[in-house]
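Reviewers of the previous submission asked for a worked example of the structure-prediction workflow described in the proposal, so we include one complete record here. The input consisted solely of the amino acid sequence. No template or homolog information was supplied to the procedure at any stage.
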Amino acid sequence: MAGASATILIDREWTSSEQKILDDMLSKTAIIIEDNNYFVVNNTFAIGGKQHEEYQSFTYTIFNINDEASYSSDECNQINEVFHSIPVTAIDFSAVTSRTNVRMLGEIVLYIANKLNGIIDFGGELLPEKAYKENDFWWIIEKANWNEVEHYYTEMIREIPGTIICIHYHTEGNRHWVYNICDVLFMKSWLDHPEFQLIK
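From that input alone, the workflow returned the following C-alpha cells.
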C-alpha cells in the first residue's frame, strides 16, 4: 500500500535554482538516490529535523500545474486570495509504503517548502481522531458534507500558529468537501502537534 504524500506549490517555473535546492537536500539526507526520483533516508538531522529511522523510502515528482490541469481557476483564485500567489509548479513528495515514517516525510516537505518559499497542499482534509471516533468512518469519507464535520477541524487548528485554508470543491457525488493548503509556519507547528498526520 502506498504511503502518505504532500505537495509543495510555488508561483514560478522550475529552474536550475530550484533543482539545486532539491539536490542539496538529497545530498544531505539520502543514502540512496535513483534516477527514477526514488531516494532512501535514515535521518533528517542535516536539514534541521528530528527523525531517525533506517531505510525510509520516498519518491518525488515535479510537474507544471497547467500541464496537469491539477487546479481549477476557482481553486487558484481561492489560493491567491490568501497567499497572494498563483501556483505554477508543484513538487509532490510521497512515502513509498504505508509503514514509512510520516514525520520524516513532513520534515523533508517543510525544509523544501521553506527554501522554495512555497506553500503545502495536503491533498485532502485534516480532521482530528475525535471526528472518526464520534462518526462512522465511511460516512465521513463517502457521504458527509464539509459543514457537518467542519467544527472538528476548526477546534483542532484554532491554537496552531501559521495559516491554513480550506479549498472548497464538489466531489463526483456532488458532496461539498475541501482539501487543505498551509504555509511553512503552520507546517512547522503541525509537525509538533499531537494530531499530526499526512494524508494517504
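The longest strand covers residues 52-64. We consider this example representative of the routine output the project will generate in years two and three.
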